[in-house]
Every structure is written in structure tokens, then in C-alpha cells.
Design brief:
single chain, Glucose Oxidase, domain 1, two-stranded antiparallel sheet, 15 strands
Length: 231
């Protein structure tokens, strides 16, 4: 299977220009050694745990939940179901995935299997280089599509998924300041992937996802290299 798999990179480059959550900071790097002076090249890097394409660990919103280094590796390599809702979202930053949306897509693509990860393709990643459009601002508030609580309850409570991902900077809609989905899913032991790109390239069913997240000790989250393996 792997010999013939298409590898689809769902990750943003991580650097000073990466759009970040309002009130946090862009990744920073300090050169510690150069080839000319030391014979090798190395940097010290500083970043917010939830920068760019990143993993949310349950501990992010669940006191006592699993930290990044406590998530079992087998939960980060899973069959994946994709919900392509780009035509439903359009340019609406207030749009949210509903349970009805999930069920309608399942009628076409098949029921989401227990133990899967689910990725939502909203198309919002087309604004990833325009911070104001992609995430909003401190002055005007965050603004981008997300997953509604009823959809999260269907996916987690009934379908038994292990992870949720989206191509915006947050699982909850940007205008949802109380983070109801985070407070429902993360205490249930679910992980999130946020800041994905190009999710629509992954087939609705039949692919696997590999979440390449460093074993960051006591992390609430960590930037990740996320790959899909498609037949």
C-alpha cells in the first residue's frame, strides 16, 4: 500500500510571516552558529505552541488532560475522512459545520468509521497569507469558519472519531469566544489539527493521516508536519 501511496503535505511553512493568533507572536529564530564562523549552522527558535499548522493536545482545554508527549503514537496515525464543505462556506466567515451537514455528506461518501480522524475543508486556507482575512484581528475580533457543537457531538459522541482537523486557525468558529467545541472535544481525549492547508486534495474516504508532532514535554500543543497518504 505505502509503495503506491500519494503523499499529500497539509502543512504551512513555519516562519516569521506565519499568521498567528491575535495577541500571540510570530515564530522567532536567532542564529547561534554559521558555517563561516563555526563550521556548521544552527539556530535557537522560539514559538507559541499553537503556531501555524499545529496539534492541540487534550490538555489545552482539559485540566488533567493528556499533554502532547502523552498522546499515544497510534492515535496520530489514523484512517481519515474528509468533509469538503467549500461550496457551503463560500466567503462567509461566520459559517459553521452542522450535524446536518455531516449527515448529508455521509449519504454521498459513506458513514464515518469509528476510530477515524475527520478533516474539514472549508477553503479558508486560500487566505493564509492575508492575516486580517484569515483570522481577524485584536481590534475587530477573530473571524473564520469552524465546527458547530452539534456536529462535534455527532462526530465524537456518536461516530467515535479520535481527532478533528480544519483549514482555519481554530476548530471553533472565530466568532465563538466561549470555545464550546474545544471544551467538549478536548476533555473527551480528542486531538485537534488547526491551520491545515489543501485538505480538499485528500479523498473523502480511503486515505490515512500521519500527524508528525514532536514529543514536546508538557505541551498544550505543538507545530506539526501533517501528511496524508492517499491511494
Amino acid at each position: 500500500m505505502l509503495a503506491n501511496a500519494r503523499v499529500i503535505d497539509l502543512s504551512q511553512p513555519l516562519g516569521p510571516s506565519t499568521v498567528h493568533w491575535p495577541g500571540t507572536f510570530s515564530p522567532e529564530a536567532t542564529t547561534m552558529a554559521t558555517h563561516a564562523e563555526s563550521g556548521y549552522y544552527a539556530r535557537a527558535v522560539r514559538f507559541f505552541e499553537h503556531s501555524g499548522t499545529h496539534l492541540d493536545a487534550p490538555a489545552h482545554f482539559a485540566d488533567g488532560g493528556a499533554m502532547v508527549h502523552e498522546i499515544p503514537a497510534e492515535r496520530l496515525v489514523r484512517p481519515v475522512a474528509v468533509l469538503d464543505v467549500r461550496d457551503r462556506v463560500g466567503d462567509d466567515p461566520t459559517w459553521r459545520l452542522s450535524a446536518a451537514d455531516v449527515e448529508e455528506l455521509e449519504e454521498r461518501d459513506g458513514t464515518i468509521a469509528t476510530g477515524s480522524a475527520v478533516l474539514v475543508a472549508t477553503g479558508w486556507d486560500r487566505f493564509v497569507n492575508d492575516g486580517e482575512r484569515y483570522v481577524g484581528s485584536v481590534a475587530n475580533g477573530t473571524s473564520f469558519p469552524g465546527i458547530g457543537l452539534d456536529a462535534a457531538k455527532l462526530l465524537v459522541g456518536e461516530r467515535g472519531v479520535v481527532g478533528l482537523g480544519i483549514d482555519t486557525l481554530g476548530i471553533d468558529p472565530g466568532n465563538e469566544s466561549a470555545f464550546p467545541v474545544h471544551y467538549y472535544t478536548l476533555p473527551a481525549g480528542i486531538w485537534h489539527l488547526e491551520g491545515l492547508i489543501g485538505v480538499e486534495r485528500v479523498p473523502a474516504r480511503g486515505a490515512w493521516i500521519v500527524v508528525g508532532a514532536p514529543l514536546l514535554y508538557d505541551g498544550s500543543g505543538v507545530p506539526a508536519r501533517v501528511l496524508a497518504l492517499a491511494p
